[in-house]
Amino acid sequence: MLAGDPAAGPAGLEEFLVRGGFLVDRVPGGLGLLQAAEQQAPDAVVLCVDAVDEAVLRTVGAFRKAAEWTDIPLVVLAAAGGGEATAGLVSAGANDAMAAPVYLGEFRARLDAQLTVRQDVRELRESLRSRDLLFDIFQEIAAALRADEIFQTLVRRVGQALGLAHCSFVITTPGDTQGRVVAVYENPAIRDLRVELARYPEIEEALRTERPVVVPNVKEHPLFAAIREKWDAQALDVDIRSAVALPVFVQGAPAGVFFLRTREGDPDLTSRDVALADTIAQAAAKVIENEDRRAAIFRRQSGASTRDQLSGVASLDMLDGRLKDELERARRYRLRFSLVLIDVDHLRDLNEKYGDGVGDRVLADLGHLLQRELRAPDFVARYGSDEFALVLPETDVRGARNFVQRFRGLIAKHVFADLAGAVPAVSAGLVSYPHPDVLRAADLFPLAEAALAAGKTTLPDHIAVAPTSGR
To answer: What is the third-level CATH fold of 307-465?
Structure first.
C-alpha cells in the first residue's frame, strides 16, 4: 500500500515497485492511512510525507497501536528532516524510515528486509500455535478411554484447528473394497458408516502406497479422472476443492486413513497444515497401539477372573468398572448410553424338560450370539445365573430396544442342539443415560432390574424401560 502525499516520495517510486513484482494500491487523500488500512490487508505500507510534524507522528503511532495491523511493516519516506526526522518516525512506531534523498535500491533492500522479518515472525507464531495445539490435543487423546474416543477427538480437534469442510477417520486395510467411518467432524452422530472405497481414490491410493496423498485440486488431478467421469455422467455439482488422505499405522500395518477435504472457496491447506494433521494422526495411532499392548498384557494376567468361563462373556467383576468408565465418558462428551439386562425365561424348566446341563449349554450359546451381535465399543457381561448385562455406548432407548429385537432374531435362527427345535425366550429391561435418577454408576442397576421385572409381564414384546421419577 502506497499512502500519503505522492509528490513527497522519490520520483518513479510506484513504477519501481510495480517492476519489482509488487501489486501497488495507492491510498488517495493525504494521511487517511488508518481508514484505508481498515479496508485492506496489505503486506506492507509505504507512507510518503513532506515534513515530519506532530500530525504525522500521531498517525504513525495510531497505526502501530491498531491491533489488527501490528504485523504489517510500515516504512516512512520523508521529503525533508534528515536523521532527526527518521529517528522520530521510528520512535513513533515506524518499522523503518528514510529521508530524502531516497535511493530506490536501498529502499527496496530495506523493504525486503521488513517483509522477511514479517514472514519469520508469522512462521514463528504459527510454529508456537502448532506446538500448543499439539500439546493440548495429545493431552486429550491420552485421557481418552478407548480407540473410538481417540478417533472422535482426532477429527474434532483437527477439523476445528484447520477449519475443514470434512474431516473423518476411516478404518480399512489394503485390499478392502469398503471402509468403516468411525468418526466425522461435521457430523459427530456418525460412528459406524460403511462406504465404498471406489468413491474415494485418495484413500485407495494412500492405502496402496502407504504414504500421505495430497490432492490440491480434485477437478484437475489425474487421480480423480475416473471419478470425475462419474460425476459428469450423473450431472453432479461437486463442491470439493482439495483432499488429503493420511494412512495410519498400528503395530506396523495400515489400520485406517485420516481423511480431510476442503470446499471451493475455502483456504488452501498448506504443507504445515498437512504435517500437523499427520503428526496428530500418528500420535493417536501410537496411543492406540500402546493401549492394545497394555490390554493384551492385562488379559493374559487376569483373563481367568475377567471372563465368565461358561458363556465366554465378561465376568460380573468387570461390569462395574465398565459402567463407571462409560458414565464418565458420557458426562464429559454429553453422550448417551444404555444399560440392558436380558433374562433367559424359565431356564430351570429347560433343565427339567431336557436334562441337567442343558441350561448351561443354552447360556453358552446365547453368550456367543451376543458377542457376534455386539459392535466394537459395546460390552456384555454375565449378570446372574440366567441374565446378561449389556453396555451400549451412544445408544438411546430406541436403539437398545432394536438391539434386543435383533438378538431375538439371531436366537430364532440358531439351532440349539439340546432343545429339539425349541427356542428359548428372553425378557429385557432398559435404562438409558442421561436419566434424572442416575448420579453414579451404581444407580443404574436398580433401575435396570426394576425394568427387567416389569419386562417379564409387559406384552407383547417383554421389554420395559426404566421410568423417571423426575427428582
So the answer is: Alpha-Beta Plaits (3.30.70)
